[in-house]
Structure formats: C-alpha cells, structure tokens
Amino acid sequence: MRAADAWTMVHGLPGTTLMENAGLAVARALESRFGKERRVAILCGLGNNGGDGFVIARVLKSDWTRVYVIGDPEKIKGDARHHYDRLRKERARLQVTVIQNEAEWSEKAAEIGRCSLVVDALLGSGSLGEPRDLIALAIEGIRRERARGARVVSVDLPSGVPTDGGPFEWKTVEADLTVTFAAKKHALVFSPGSEMAGSVVVASIGIKDEALQFDDRGTRLFELEESDARAAFPARAKDSHKGDFGHVLIVAGSLGKAGAAVLAARGAFRTGAGLVTVVSVGEVCRIVTMAQPEVMTTSLGEGAELGDLPRAAGRIIEIAAGMDAVVIGPGLGRSEKTQELVLDVVARCPRPVVIDADGLYGLRPQTFSRIAQRDRPTVLTPHPGEMARLLGKENAAVQKDRVKAVHSAAAETRSTVVLKGRHTLIANTRSEVWLNPTGSSSLATAGTGDVLAGAIGAIVARGVLADVAAGAGVYIHGLAGERAGKRRPWGTVAGDVAEALPRVIASLGR
Predict the structure, then answer these.
(1) Residue range 131-180, pLDDT digits in tens
(2) 156, 181, 213: which is the final residue of a domain?
(3) Is 178 exposed, middle or buried (0-12, 13-18, 19+ CB in 10 A)?
C-alpha cells in the first residue's frame, strides 16, 4: 500500500487529496450505516490515520461530534497537519480536545463514554509492534466503550493490528466496522486480525488498479469472489449430454476406507461431472456401487490396498488415457508400495491430476521433480499437517506463514496448491495466492476433504484451468459447508456438504 500511495502521488494525485478522499469515504460509511443522529467521538493519533480522522470530523454531519487528539499536536506533520489546520479553521466551533497524559485521559473518559459511536483513527497501516503509552491507554478505552454498548468504526485498520497479518499477543481495538482504502490489508483477511475488524468496507480513494500491480515486489494476494466461482459454471446448453461435462477417474479407497472413494465420487457428481469411475480394490468397488450406483467401478484385485505395483499402475494409466481428469489419494493407504504407485501414476498420467490425502503422503522435496516435470496440470490439496510433511517443516512453521508455505510448494512442484484450513489458500505458478473467504467450522469433520477433491476434479475435467478450478471448487465447497452447518449446527457430515453443492452452484450470481 505504501508503494501504491507513492505511485499515485507521482502520477498526479497529492497525498492531501488521498487523505481527503479517505476521510470522506469513512464519513459516508458512518452516515450510511449508523445515521446522522449520533453522538460521535473521533480519537485521532498524530500520523496519517489521525489525518483521516480530522477529515472525518470536518465533513461529518452529526449534531454532536467531539475530536480527541492523543498526543502532542505539535508533532502532527505533513498531510495530517494540513487537515488538522483546516479542521481548526473551517470548523472553529467543533470541540477539539488534546490529551497528552493519563490524567487528561481520565478527565475526558466520562465524556467519551456518553458517545454512542467511537471512531478509531489512532494507528494505520504504518504502525509497527505493540502500542504503548497513551495510544495503548486509548485502545483500552475504546475497548471499554464497546463493551458498554458503543459502536466502533476503525479507519483503515483496527488500531494495534499488525498490517501484514500474523499472530500478535497484545490488545487491539475491536471494531464493528472497518473502512479500509483501495484494497484489503493482509490483517483484514487473516486471523487473528480479521476477528478484530468486524464488517469490512473497501473504499475507493483514487488509487488506480494499475498502482496495485506488484510486479517484482512480492507475492500477489487476492480474495476469491463469487464471480470467480461463477465463471467456472457457464450455463448448460439445452442439447448437452453427459460427455460434455467431463469424465472423472477417482483412484481411491482401501480396506476400511471405502467411504473416501464414495465421498470423492459424490463430490464430483454433485459439482456437475457427467461421468465418474472409481478404480480401487474389489471390496471398495462393491461398496461404492451400493452407495452410489451412478458411479462406474474397475477393480484392481482383492486386498487391503492396491496390489501388484507395476500391473496396477499400468492399468490405472491405461484407464486414465480415456478420462478428462484424475483424482488420486483419498483413503488409498500409506504403505510404501502404495506411495510408490501414486508417484508412478502421477508422473506418467496423460491427464490433469488432483492429488489429495494419502496420495500426498509420499511427496517430499526429493520427489518433487516427478511432479514438477509433468506436462499436464497438477493440483495438490494438503491440510497443514500434510503441507508440513511435504515441505519438511513443522506444522507450526506452516501455520505461522501460510502464504509463504503455499507459495513455496507451488513454486517447487510447478503445481496449483490448495492449503486447506480456515481461509484456505490457493497458489499457482504465477506467484499469485488466492484466499477463500467462504467456509465454516461445519467443515471440520471427516470426509469433507474427499468431497472437495472430487469437486475440483469435476471442474478440471470440463477443461477449466487448474488454478481457476481449484479456486471455484474451494469457494463453492466453503459455501456448501456454511449451508449444511446452518441446517445442522452440530452433527454435519461430509455427505451433507456434498448434497448442498448443487444449490450453491445454482445460487451463484443470484
């Protein structure tokens, strides 16, 4: 955002105008959301975030507004100073109170407590580390007023939340509404900062999209939107037939884990696949046929897991040649023999492949080349534990920087990688990471990952680009989890998520 601000100012829009536009946007959001008949307290820091607050105070049409400058106003510089002076000049009757110590804060606490709306303009995207001294006192005061029933609106970010996301251990403002500028900041979409932001409104302040193209400045992070998912589901032609919607091969299941194959097949069908075939051991194939009669099956023999490696791998590749996409791994087993089969099949498979669950177990940095050298699209769908094993790291290291982990895995395997969990991430080979905003705790149950793998496989089978398919699959899968969870707040199972997919897809764009 600093680079985007600088680009915008170089190209003719001064900082004072950007600040004016930011303050106007917040004021309009306040009036739209809460009305004009409010007692408003605006708490301003000494930096640019405080400058936004001065603009808000000047343009807000509330009958009762108070401005509190936290710190020495002589330290206000640059664009913020311009708007502070303009506020004092144009609204001379507006009460502006300077608070420079704890005693002065205590003196004004009761007055602030009479406000029904508190605007947090203390710290913005330039702040670093734990707030201290007067700012920490003001943050504590805002938290106290919210606990008493006041509504809190934060400017750009809740004060104290680190801009670039990641864990923190100190207290921050907890907002009901955050009005941010040009684009969401990492902290507004990643935990724990996202929990502090309340509803988030992105306001345009004159920064063009061109200024937000990062080029060589790092990974580009996007948030998936409904339109991204909708693009993967065009209207069906009236004269279409099952062959138009892809044939998905699912290599899944082992003794005691037949359900994984059933759920992956169901996820593929419920996402619109025209045909689905499951390849597995005989016992799994029999269970699949009974549970989902629409699914075709091919047995590779009896046993707990897939049998003779060369014969089984050759047969799978032979079958895959007539398919549109392959999903491999759900419930397949983790024996050394099975893992070698997965690597062999994936390396030689002539079709797009989605590798999930047990299929990921044999992947290590030393085996990445067998994935990276493929000339067809590959999608990996690890959860954090699987990602840690894949990268040779601790689980905590993956969770500490999920963006870095998923970007690294995508680059090293030359694949699309889906890092599952809260705010699932999708990385492609163009240094882009997409964040999924959908989903709920209802997805925290056995088998939902199998449904997701089948769903992605179904979209890929229709010829959709791998990263687009992964993004669309994750988005609708999250919405299906939300829908299933509303019906059954406790006791949701993976089959409920699969059954919710068709209505979710039908609702896109409506």
Answers:
(1) 999 999 999 999 999 999 999 999 999 999 998 877 888 999 999 999 99
(2) 213
(3) buried
Does the N-terminal peptide bond of residue 192 adopt cis geometry, omega within 30 degrees of 0? Answer: yes
Query: Across residues 340-364, what is the average pLDDT?
Result: 95
DSSP category for residue 236:
P
Query: Of 161, 189, 213, which closes a domain?
Result: 213
How far apart (Å, rounded) are the C-alpha atoms in residues 431 and 464? 19
- Residues with Cβ within 8 Å of 507's Cβ and at least 6 positions away in sequence, in order, are none
Q: Is 416 helix (H, G, I), strand (E, B) or coil?
A: strand
Domain count along the chain: 2
Cα(280)–Cα(316) distance, integer angstroms = 10
Among the residues of 46-132, which ranges form H helices?
48-59, 78-90, 102-113
Q: In which order are the strands placed within the sheet that holds 199-203?
A: 95-99, 64-70, 39-44, 117-121, 151-155, 177-181, 199-203
- The DSSP H or E segment spanning 435 is strand 432-435
Give the pLDDT confidence score for residue 35 in this predicted structure: 83
Mean pLDDT to the nearest integer, 115-136: 93
Residue 308: pLDDT over 70: no
Full residue range of the structural domain in which residue 319 is found: 227-507
> Is residue 47 situated within a structural domain?
yes
- Residue tagged 């067809």 (tokens): 376
Whether residues 35 and 180 share a domain: the answer is yes
136 vs 55: CA distance, rounded Å: 23
Window from 63-67, 305-309, 348-352, 401-405 with minimum mean pLDDT: 305-309
pLDDT tens digits, 191-219? 889 999 999 999 999 999 888 876 555 67
If asked whether residues 14 and 125 sit together in one domain, one would say yes
Q: H/E element holding 24?
A: helix 15-34
Q: What mean pLDDT, rounded, does the chain reach?
A: 93
